[in-house]
Amino acid sequence: MKDLWSLKREFLEYCELEKGQSLLTISNYDRYLTKFITWFDDFKRQNNPADKEPLTADAITSDAVKEYRLYLNRLSDKMGRPLKRSTQNYHIITLRAFLGFLAGRGIVSLAPQKVALAKSQERKVEFLEAKDIVLLIKMPNIASFKGLRDRLILELLFSTGLRVSELANLNIGDINLERNEIPVRGKGGKVRVVFLSDSAHQILETYIKLIGDSEELILNKIAGSRLTVRSIERIVAKYAKAAGISKKVSPHTLRHTFATDLLINGADLRSVQSLLGHANVSTTQIYTHVTDQHLRDVHKAFHGKRTEEKSS
């Protein structure tokens, strides 16, 4: 019987070659499974020091997973804070995916459905109000290359709802300016189409003429190299601070703002799901709390006006 380390390698190869998952996802899987197998080896030896046999899949039990969850719950991050429930769940989701792979190969182990996730706190959606997004986008001085590029970054993030990694990896050849659309390969290698606003289109045309023959879109300088994700995050935060926006603003804040803007203006949840590239509509439903607040404001503004007039 193969040991867990060998099975882990086969699982990672399966994810890359057969499922077509991104190298970042595979790297995360590798890290989380390494942590689990290392912990499991120590756990097993502590409980039975005389056991020198290699770790095998059939040794993974519900009790062992329960102990692993306790271990994760007692871990601290680099700042000395307890691991967030969402971070703990990333480890457990990876373990479930691994167990599912084993089941699909007919390898005896714990059934993935027997591994429960920790209940997470509801995600808080941070987004910008209309006046703030307008102010933010107009902050860069487009008379310079950097200002034009930074304006393009802000325009594209808000116009398309792209993830920052998707924006950083865009090439000029990906963009169809005639149709105002960009096919984007997102998580899991799935392709979706996002659309350009008129203002994003205008800035994009000017920017492409300026950078000339470059293949990559978002550059650190004219004829330079591709800008990193971290650099884009710093650029967004810099202009938000310059605009006097008090909340912490990141590229993901603009993605939230994109989705919120669509929903408040009447878009249906399934369409927003497609535009964001969410695999499940349950992920998109985090935005319904925002639209609920919008409906509450509408109710307060318009409900009961006739009865108020009658009673006065």
Structure, explained:
This protein has 312 residues and is mainly alpha-helical. It has 2 domains: 4-114, DNA polymerase, domain 1; 130-298, Intergrase catalytic core (hpI Integrase, Chain A, Orthogonal Bundle). Helices cover 56% and strands 3% of the residues. The protein contains 14 helices and 2 strands. The chain has a two-stranded antiparallel sheet. α1 (4-17) runs antiparallel to α2 and α6 (145-160) runs antiparallel to α8 (198-211). The longest helix has 25 residues, at 23-47. The radius of gyration is 24 Å and the shape is globular. The mean pLDDT is 89.
Radius of gyration: 24 Å
Assign the CATH topology of the largest domain.
hpI Integrase, Chain A
User: Largest sheet, order of strands side by side?
Assistant: 1-2
What amount of the residues lies in strands?
under 5%
Series of H and E elements: HHHHHHHEEHHHHHHH
- What overall geometry do the principal axes of the alpha carbons give? globular
Distance between the termini: 84 Å
Helix content range of the residues, please? Answer: 55-70%
Mean pLDDT: 89
Our count of domains comes out at: 2
CATH superfamily of the largest domain: Intergrase catalytic core
CATH architecture classification name of the largest domain? Orthogonal Bundle
- Main beta sheet: 2 strands, antiparallel
Unreliable stretches (pLDDT < 50, length at least 5) are none
Output the CATH class name of the largest domain.
Answer: Mainly Alpha
Instruction: Tell how many strands the DSSP assignment holds.
Output: 2
